[in-house]
Amino acid sequence: MEFRYLGNSGLRISEVTYGNWLTHGSQVENDVAATCVRAALDAGITSFDTADVYANTVAESVLGDALKGERRESLEIFTKVFWPTGPKGPNDSGLSRKHIMESINGSLQRLQTDYVDLYQAHRYDPVTPLEETMQAFADVVRQGKALYIGVSEWTAEQITAGAAMAKELGFQLISSQPQYSMLWRVIEDEVVPASREAGVSQIVWSPIAQGVLTGKYQPGQPPPEGSRATDEKGGASTITRFMTDETLTAVQRLKPIAESVDLSMSQLAVAWVLQNDNVASAIVGASRPEQVHENVGAVGVKLPAETLAAIDDALGGVVERDPGKTAENAPKERP
Q1: What is the CATH classification number for the domain harbouring 35?
Q2: Among the options 18, 54, 124, 180, which is catalytic?
Q3: What UniProt keywords are attached to this protein's entry (predicted)?
Q4: 144: buried, middle or exposed (CB in 10 Å: 19+, 13-18, 0-12)?
């Protein structure tokens, strides 16, 4: 395993982060989840990402159980706040002071830890004043319940404003967690430059485009049984945008490119996002331990310039690059 600094901080995290969105408490049984976490630890992964909303808080509990007995100081545990949890009452979502202060306590209890290394705003709250949100995060840090603060799927302007306010309040905003892959590059033109300027780096989710970049989905063919595209618990809806024959045909052109550098297609996908020097880590999930070991094979890989160019040529016009997609996909009101 190799490690990178997260933003303009002294915190180092593993180049691959184990995430449990759509798996723990949902797709896989708890014993399988624990086996996958053990595989991650054995592979040298020290960073683990979750959120209170995953499986309506159950994913945090599963991760807490799976990490029980590990040396806490040797781990970096990340969680998030924003989306509705619990009975979904009027204050059970958003980034109000009330919801943040109550949510961090619940997350710590479920994760069985006194603090998280990184506490992230899962989306930007369009109705709560930014000052209220950032002051609450400052207090969470001062109380020792979180060591660092990050955001997820914020626009460049929101990151700039949030980082500036954090500095005024005496703490650092150090990370951004956006979707990023060979097929989804919307952060490159605005979010990444703004993040560099603010001392923020990326922890990217879906580097394999929800499994599409493994090449297992064939154009003109139904998706394999048991795959993400057949999972009605949430996976099927998130993968739809990539399931066109044009995109799947382009992805098949990546196979000889991966073979030319002795990587699997999933390893190529993870290695590709790690070529971006503003990316600190790529989040990978797993429903089987062998998936963890395969993805870790991307760590430390340096892709030649001709390989990167070949990837661009292979994917052509199916790549989404519009920076406006971050704002377009953001909640317009509190959920």
Answers
A1: 3.20.20.100
A2: 54
A3: NADP, Oxidoreductase
A4: exposed
